[in-house]
Design a protein that fits this description.
This protein has a 6-stranded antiparallel barrel with strand order 1-2-11-10-7-12. The longest helix has 8 residues. The model has no long low-confidence stretch (mean pLDDT 92). The N and C termini lie close together (11 Å). 8% of the residues lie in helices and 40% in strands.
Length: 206
């Protein structure tokens, strides 16, 4: 497998062989169940759909229940596709867990960042404050000019302005796996991972 669906547990720290403190994020990697196998003949490309977690049957609609039933899965909290290996034969209902990773491996971890709500340009884009003197009338945290007057008489796309901050997909790249607890399917990933605790994460092999 090229990756797994997991869940962010919390941040912590461990000591390496030299006795140095290493900040880590605990990630529960799987177990994930193969819920669909896509091939070039049927779908136009090769991939494997994995199911992770469980939720109540009353929150699972009939199309989703029928789709998961083919792999003998009652419910799934998260579904995601990963690139499949050409040399491996996948089967519906097959399980994958943290055993596909090894210590020292470099991975990318994608998750949804924490939502911060509506934020100004200082918090959202790291703008500097304006002068609090020389005729500035209480606009110290305002963005300043956002364009020209008579021409082109519009604001260009991509202008950094106040707005909703966070709550978007963020990928933390090139993170090292420093330890693995295979009994509990826990990965000790060096550094920070976006998102809140218990949020779903997608771990992709490099």
């Amino acid at each position: 497998m090229y990756g797994l669906i997991g869940k962010k547990i919390k941040m912590s720290q461990i000591f390496n062989a030299e006795g140095h403190v290493v900040p880590v994020t605990l990630v529960q990697a799987g177990p994930c169940v193969v819920s669909q196998i896509k091939t070039t003949d049927t779908d136009g490309y090769n991939s494997v759909q994995l199911a992770f977690g469980e939720k109540s049957k009353r929150n699972t609609n009939k199309p989703a229940a029928g789709h998961l039933k083919k792999a003998d899965i009652e419910s799934a909290k998260v579904l995601a596709e990963f690139k499949s290996l050409d040399t491996f034969e996948y089967k519906l209902g097959q399980k994958f867990d943290s055993s596909i990773f090894h210590v020292g491996e470099i991975v990318d971890v994608r998750s949804k960042s924490k939502g911060k709500g509506f934020a100004g340009v200082i918090k959202r884009h790291n703008f500097s404050r304006q002068d609090a003197t020389h005729g500035n009338k209480h606009t110290e945290r305002a963005p300043g000019s956002i364009g020209q007057a008579s021409w082109p008489s519009r604001v260009f796309k991509g202008m950094k302005m106040a707005g909703r901050k966070g709550s978007g997909n963020v990928t933390a790249q090139n993170l090292e796996i420093v330890d693995i607890d295979k009994e509990n399917n826990l990965l000790y990933v060096k550094g920070a991972i976006p998102g809140a605790n218990n949020a779903p994460v997608f771990i992709v092999k490099k």
